[in-house]
Design brief:
two-stranded parallel ribbon, Rossmann fold, mainly alpha
């Protein structure tokens, strides 16, 4: 990320990590973006992605979520929130909005 910043001081570099808050690493980043969806969607999406039944997916998603802060805490800590519960078009619109805001911030810096 430092190299990207040297190359383009107005660049936006992103790190995807589910446990940034839990690891106490949020302070190392300029902004925190949280993506969330309804709990049942997490189960359905994980089942579809991995190719398992929903009962197996529910156990695994529940196990993973137990290792994470609750959504309420993540949302409270977030600078930007993307609710991924709706349609793909809705999510893409929100991603575009957030990207434009981040770009404006980066260009001011």
């Amino acid at each position: 990320m430092e190299e990207v910043g040297r190359t383009d001081p107005h660049a936006i570099a992103m790190v995807e990590a589910a446990l940034i808050l839990e690891a106490g690493m949020a302070k190392r980043f300029d902004r925190l973006l949280v993506v969330t969806c309804r709990p049942e969607q997490r189960v359905q999406r994980w089942a579809a992605r991995v190719g398992v039944d929903e009962q197996t997916a529910r156990r695994e998603v529940t196990r993973r979520m137990a290792a994470q802060f609750p959504d309420e805490a993540k949302i409270k800590a977030a600078d930007y929130l993307i609710d991924n519960s709706g349609s793909l078009d809705e999510t893409q619109r929100r991603v575009t909005e957030v990207y434009r805001e981040l770009k404006r911030e980066a260009e001011k810096a």
